[in-house]
Amino acid sequence: RKEVEQDPGPFNVPEGATVAFNCTYSNSASQSFFWYRQDCRKEPKLLMSVYSSGNEDGRFTAQLNRASQYISLLIRDSKLSDSATYLCVVNTNAGKSTFGDGTTLTVKP
Amino acid sequence: DAGVIQSPRHEVTEMGQEVTLRCKPISGHNSLFWYRQTMMRGLELLIYFNNNVPIDDSGMPEDRFSAKMPNASFSTLKIQPSEPRDSAVYFCASSPLDRGSNQPQHFGDGTRLSIL
Predict the structure, then answer these.
(1) Cα–Cα distances in Å, from A7 out to A49, A102, B41, B69?
(2) Which has more confidence, A94 or B105?
(3) C-alpha angle B10/B14/B19, rounded to 5°?
(4) How many CB pairs under 8 A join A and B?
(5) Alpha-carbon gap, residue A107 to A75, rounded angstroms
(6) Which of the four pLDDT bands, split at 50, 70 and 90, describes residue B100?
(7) Is A49 within 8 Å of chain B by CB?
(8) B11 pairs with which residues across the strands?
(9) Where would you tag: which of A10, A109, B51, B80 has the fewest CB atoms within 10 A of its CB?
(10) A91 reaches B (C-beta below 8 A)
C-alpha cells in the first residue's frame, strides 16, 4: 500500500461545476498536509496548506480528517484554468514529504 | 525573489556519459530535496538534506546516483554512468527547516533529462 493514495481520475467536469478530490495517508504520525498543483510540463506549485480546522482560499476548500487519515480538496465554480494535476502531500515530523501520484482535472467549456 | 534555480533546463546525452544536475535553493532555506518524475512512477523523492547533511537517501535508485551539498547554496545530483531508464524530469526543491514540519517545499523548474 502506498503511503499517500489519490484517485488518479481523470475528472472531466464542465465549467462552473463543483469537484472534490480525496487523499488518504497511512502514517498516523504525519504532521502537516498540503495540496499542490502541477500543470503539464511544469513544476509542482503549492496551492494551499491544509489545517486541522479546515481552510478556504477563494473557490478552494481543504479539509483534514485525522481520525480517518484523509484530506480533501473542494473546488467550486470550476474554471478552465483549473485544469491541472492536483497532488496531495503529507509531511512527517522529520520534514520528509510524501507526494501522492496526483489527480488529473480537466474543466471543459 | 529568486526561486529555486536548476540547471541545465534540458540535457540530452548518450548512455554511459556522466550527467551532473545542479541546484541553488532559495536563500535561507535549510532543507533541499531531489525528486525524479516519470509518467510511470510519478514523483519520487531521491534524497534530501537538512543543513547540508544528507538525511535520507533511501530513494536513490542505485550506486550510479550520487548527490552532494557542499554548502547552503548549492547541490548537485550526479549520474555515472547514465542509462536510458534514467530519462525523466529531475526536480530540486527547498524549504525552511522547521521541526514542526509545517513548511511547504518550493520547486525549481526541473531538468528534463534524455539518455539516448
Answers:
(1) 20, 7, 15, 36
(2) B105
(3) 55
(4) 61
(5) 11
(6) low
(7) yes
(8) B113
(9) A109
(10) yes
